[in-house]
Every structure is written in C-alpha cells, then in structure tokens.
C-alpha cells in the first residue's frame, strides 16, 4: 500500500463528541418525528437538555432504571421508531447487558445505544463509573455494531449514519473536547477504519478518545526521533476492518493498538486474533487499561498513568522498534 | 451526645463537607447536605461501630446505597476518627483513595457503591447471614428517591420481607429531587409508604432534619417483629444553605469563592442560634 504523507497543520479544537451527538440529533429531529430519545435521568450528561426543550414529545424519560431504558427502547424500535437509548456507558453496558443481549440483539430490534461519558471520562468517580469492559462484553454478543468515534467529524457522521441504520448499534462517546484529527482525508463509513496520518515505520491503531494521544505520539516521534507512524482511527470495533489491518500488517511493520478500555477483550485483542489466525507475525503491543484495580483521577491523569499519552506511546513505539 | 450537641454537629459536618467539595472542586453537594442529619444520628447515636476495630464481626453495618453523597459520609467518618481529616484534602485527586464514591480502601466503608440500586440487595444478604449466625447486629442502608426506580430495589424489597428481615433498616432520603428534575416529573414514585407496606415492610415517616425524630425511629426497631424496617425521611436537597435548598443545580454544583463564603456565613449564623 502506498503511504503518501498527509500534510498536517495545527489541529482545530472542537467540542465534546457528546455535544456533537446532541446537536446533530436536534438537526435531524426537526424533519424526522420518528426519532425518539430515551433517557434515565441522564439527559444532562447526554447534553440533551436543549433537545428535550425543543422536542419534548420525542423524549421518553424512564427515571434511574437502565434496564427499563433499554427494554423500552427495544419496544419503541420494534414499533418502527428510531430509538436512541442514552445513558452513561458504565450503566448502559453493564446494568442493561441482558436487555442488550436479548431484547436488542437477539430479538433484532434496531436500538441505537448511546453510551455517554465512556471509558474513564468519569475518572475520579471510580470503577462504578468507568466502562472498561463494554467492548469486550458487546463483542461477545451477536448482531451488534460497536462504534467509538474519535473526533467531532466522525461523531457527526456516525450519528447521521445511525438514524436509518436498521440493526443494533452501540455508539460510545466521551466527555472531553476533541480536536479535528484530519480534515483533508474525511470519509466515514461504519466498519471502515480511517487513516489519520501516514508513516512508514510503525502503525498505531487506536479508537475513540485514545486516537488523539496516538496522533500526538506520532508527532513527537517524528519531530524528536524521525520515526514515521501511521495512525488509524479504528472507530468501528465490530465488525472490524480486517482489510485495513491486513494492509497495515502486510509490510511487516510493528503494530501498536491503543484504547480506553481494559486490555482484555477490546480492540487490541480483536486485532491480535485476526493477525494470528491469518499468518501475520508483526511485532505487536496492546496499550489500554491493565487488568488491575484502576487508578483514579481525571481522564488525563489515568491516561498518563497507563501510558495512553504522547510520551507513553512514544516509549512503547521506541521499545517495539528496538 | 445530647440533642443540642448533635444539632451543632450537623452544622459542623455541613461546613466540613462544603469545605472539601469547595477544595476539590467536585462533589455531590445537594444530596450530601440532604443526608447529613441522618448520617450524624446514625454514627453518633445509633450504629455500634468502632473506628479502632472496624472489622469487628458483631458491628452494625451501614451500606450507603446512594453512594454519590459520599462527602457527607467522609466527613462523618473523619469526625468519628476512622481516618485523619487531613486525608480529605486529596478528595478526588489523582491516586487518592478518597474518590467520588465509597470504597473499602477507606476505613469505615462497608462496600464499594456508586452505581445506584446496589446497596439494598447487599444488605439483604448481610441481614440473612446475621440471622443464620444468630447475631444481633443491625444492617442499615440509605436510598435516594431518584434511585428507587431501579428494579433491583424492588427485588430486594420482596426478598427482605420474604426472609422476615427485621434486622434490616432501609432509610429513604426523600428530598423529592434527582438530577433532571423533581421525582414527580422524572419518574413518579408516589405513595411510597403504601407501596412499601404492600411489599411487607413496616414503615415510619420522619422529618429527616429533625434529630429527635431520627433518633426515635432509628433506635427503636424492629418496628414489628419479623418485618423489615423502612424509614421515610422527608428531607430537603441542599439543606442548610438557603440558596442551594431545592435548587437542582446543586446536585453536583460546586460553590464559587463567594458562594462558599455565603454558605459558611449562613451556617455560622444557624450555629449561633442553637
Ligand atoms: C445505576 C446508576 N444510574 C445512574 C447514576 C447517575 N446518578 C448519580 S446520582 C443520580 C441522581 C440520584 O438521585 P437521588 O437518588 O434522588 O439522590 P439525591 O437526590 O439524594 O442526591 C444519578 C442519576 C448512578 N450513579 N447509578
Ligand atoms: Mg433525591
């Protein structure tokens, strides 16, 4: 695969992805009265207060009851509504997991599960409020597409694609303002990874809010060490873009994966499984949250602690190259 | 402690929790102020727990189901000597054990809570175990009214009555508000008393800011032999700081310099009137 360099300017700062989710949905709801949002005392966190003010009839509030949230959304979807079930990722993907497995996926009701404040967005609130298991749990369920957009562009496209997507979908957003990662190479499709930056020495495959630190590491590697990294935003965790992974692996370069998720069962293991079973032997390293009692602090504190940062990833890449 | 001393203690605890929330720039202010009097009475008048020997198997258990109001619990435990108060200067900081919800890393905490709807089922388990072991300790939990719609609570209400758990005390911090709005508008839970009675619990209703009523209700169980005990404590979210009282913004609002000073002035004023 030809690796032409993408020109990089300073990144333009955006807003939190969950704000883009709400803004985009408001725009779409004007003409699409079938869009319904179900909330579990979660509209503030989901940035949906303006949505609720403009479209009071398009919000179904269930109170603090996430299992009911997903069950009700399944019923709405079954009746032909475009149901977005919005709740913090930690509760949506753990508390309501059986409703997701049975009522959404198994019964094939095309609910759009919108997981907000995902990963360690609620860093200082502790493990109850972290979702570091959701990719793993949902990857093990048939009939669901899992998407973690990296920036505002991917988020807007994901929400637009979601509205008429006729299968179960899990959209995962964080709380932090995100920069636009590549405005020259914009194209978005569920199941197709997006190349943010190209370089010949190493490939970093990241997802969600971990893409920005991966991009930052690539910049530092280039300026400090002359190391050229390709960075992929693998926004869709399932189905995985194995064609792109094969492309990246085919020239033998090392691969590093980065995710705001436990190292067990997430993006990294999904890539590893594909590579091993298809004859690739690239040097390979998974960076994520290790299987331990997770440290607390801000999201940045936690990322720094576990090496999901420009410095941390620079070290990982230099180690794997040596 | 006398009732007057407890009243003064409540003011002190309110000032303490505001201090640490202000310092950390994070915390669940409204819900902590709403349950301060309940925690004060529990730890200073009701619970048999020893900071020096917390793991005593015969201790009373207190599991805070509405874990987000951890700041009220932290300052109450610090005041009882479970840990040095200074520890709270690290509240919510990187690597601190004093995070935004209860964890067992802190001396005095029974369980790691924070996801709503988990406290009561654990208490049912503790209460069944106490019965099996023929122990006399009591098990307490504190529920939020917004938390009640979680189905797990209703599963546990059934189980507690089924197993005749008269050693179990569930206290409802009934401030009638949650994050998005009033319970009335978000999810109605009306007739709580009748609902719980229908589920086989013995119910008492108290003013959750009245020290005497709290002592009377919390210390005189079981209300009926063989029945679990439910205490509806009518409270005000943000209690004690008038600009916070009943104002949704203070669910997890953090006071500015000026607001912090206003709050302290008001609490000092209330203190001088006791
Ligand atoms: C399972 C779960 N869902 C959602 C939340 C987020 N949350 C934290 S506090 C809260 C509102 C709680 O309201 P209430 O129980 O009335 O507490 P209080 O008014 O006493 O603060 C919500 C929705 C949570 N902690 N756990
Ligand atoms: Mg409440």
TrEMBL record, chain A:
Please give the SUPFAM superfamilies that the UniProt record associates with this protein.
Answer: Thiamin diphosphate-binding fold (THDP-binding), TK C-terminal domain-like
Q: Which family does it belong to?
A: Belongs to the transketolase family.
- According to the entry, every stretch annotated as the Transketolase-like pyrimidine-binding domain falls at 15-180
Source species, please?
Euzebyella marina
Output the superkingdom of the source species.
Answer: Bacteria
The name of this protein is: Transketolase family protein
The UniProt record lists the keyword Disulfide bond? no
Q: Which InterPro entries does UniProt cross-reference here?
A: PDH/Transketolase, THDP-binding, Transketo_C/PFOR_II, Transketolase-like_Pyr-bd, Transketolase_C
Q: Name one Pfam family in it.
A: Transket_pyr
Which cofactor does this sequence's record say it needs?
A: thiamine diphosphate
CDD domains attached here? TPP_PYR_DXS_TK_like (cd07033)
Keywords assigned by UniProt? Thiamine pyrophosphate
TrEMBL record, chain B:
Decide whether keyword Oxidoreductase is in the record.
no
Transketolase N-terminal domain: residues covered? 20-257
Give the keywords, sorted.
Thiamine pyrophosphate
In terms of Pfam families, this protein maps to: Transketolase_N (PF00456)
Needs which cofactor?
thiamine diphosphate
UniProt key word Transmembrane:
no
Q: Tell me which domain of life the UniProt entry assigns to the organism this sequence originates from.
A: Bacteria
- Please state which protein family the record places this protein in: Belongs to the transketolase family.
Query: Which PANTHER family does the record associate with it?
Result: TRANSKETOLASE N-TERMINAL SECTION-RELATED
Q: What protein name is recorded for this chain?
A: Transketolase
Task: Tell me which species this is from.
Answer: Euzebyella marina
């Amino acid at each position: 695969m030809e690796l032409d360099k993408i020109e990089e300017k300073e990144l333009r700062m955006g807003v939190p992805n969950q704000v883009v989710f709400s803004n985009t949905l408001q725009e779409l709801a004007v003409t699409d009265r079938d869009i319904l949002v179900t909330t579990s005392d979660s509209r503030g966190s989901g940035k949906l207060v303006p949505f609720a003010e403009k479209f009071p009839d398009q919000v179904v509030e269930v109170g603090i009851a996430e299992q009911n949230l997903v069950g009700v959304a399944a019923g709405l979807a079954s009746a032909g509504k475009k149901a977005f079930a919005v709740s913090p990722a930690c509760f949506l993907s753990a508390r309501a997991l059986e409703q997701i497995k049975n009522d959404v996926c198994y019964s094939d009701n095309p609910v759009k599960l919108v997981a907000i404040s995902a990963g360690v967005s609620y860093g200082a609130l502790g493990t109850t409020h972290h979702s570091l298991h959701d990719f793993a749990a949902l990857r093990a369920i048939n009939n669901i597409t899992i998407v973690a957009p990296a920036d505002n562009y991917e988020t807007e496209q994901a929400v637009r694609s979601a509205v008429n997507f006729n299968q179960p979908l899990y959209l995962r957003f964080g709380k932090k303002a995100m920069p636009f990662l590549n405005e020259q190479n914009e194209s978005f499709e569920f199941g197709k990874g997006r190349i943010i930056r190209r370089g010949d020495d190493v490939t970093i495959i990241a997802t969600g809010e971990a893409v920005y630190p991966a991009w930052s590491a690539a910049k530092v590697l280039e300026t400090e060490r002359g190391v050229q990294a390709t960075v992929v935003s693998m926004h869709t965790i399932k189905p995985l873009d194995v064609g792109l992974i094969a492309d990246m692996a085919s020239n033998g370069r090392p691969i590093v994966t980065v995710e705001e998720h436990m190292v067990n069962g997430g993006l990294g293991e999904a890539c590893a499984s594909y590579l091993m079973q298809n004859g690739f032997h690239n040097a390979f390293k998974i960076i994520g949250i290790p299987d331990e009692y997770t440290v607390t602090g801000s999201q940045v504190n936690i990322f720094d602690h576990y090496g999901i940062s420009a410095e941390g990833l620079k070290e990982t890449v230099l180690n794997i190259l040596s | 402690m006398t009732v007057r001393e407890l009243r003064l203690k409540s003011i002190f605890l309110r000032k303490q929790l505001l201090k640490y929330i202000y310092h950390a720039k994070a915390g669940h202010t409204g819900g902590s102020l709403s349950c301060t009097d309940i925690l004060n009475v529990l730890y200073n008048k009701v619970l048999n727990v020893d900071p020096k020997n917390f793991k005593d198997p015969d201790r009373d258990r207190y599991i805070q189901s509405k874990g987000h109001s951890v700041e009220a619990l932290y300052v109450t435990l610090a005041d009882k000597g479970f840990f040095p108060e200074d520890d709270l200067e690290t509240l919510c900081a990187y690597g601190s054990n004093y995070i935004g919800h209860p964890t067992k890393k802190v001396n005095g905490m029974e369980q790691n809570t924070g996801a709503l709807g988990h406290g009561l089922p654990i208490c049912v388990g503790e209460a069944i175990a106490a019965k099996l072991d023929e122990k006399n300790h009591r098990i307490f939990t504190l529920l939020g009214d917004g938390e009640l719609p979680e189905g797990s609570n209703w599963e546990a209400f059934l189980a507690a009555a089924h197993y005749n758990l008269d050693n179990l005390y569930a206290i409802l911090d009934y401030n009638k508000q949650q994050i998005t709005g009033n319970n009335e508008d978000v999810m109605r839970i009306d007739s709580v008393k009748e609902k719980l009675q229908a589920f086989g619990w013995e119910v008492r209703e108290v003013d959750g800011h009245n020290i005497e009523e709290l002592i009377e209700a919390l210390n005189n169980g079981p209300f009926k032999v063989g029945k679990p005990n439910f205490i509806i404590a009518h409270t005000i979210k943000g209690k004690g700081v008038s600009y916070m009282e009943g104002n949704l913004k203070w669910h997890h609002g953090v006071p500015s310099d000026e607001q912090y000073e206003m709050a302290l002035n008001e609490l000092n004023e209330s203190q001088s009137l006791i």
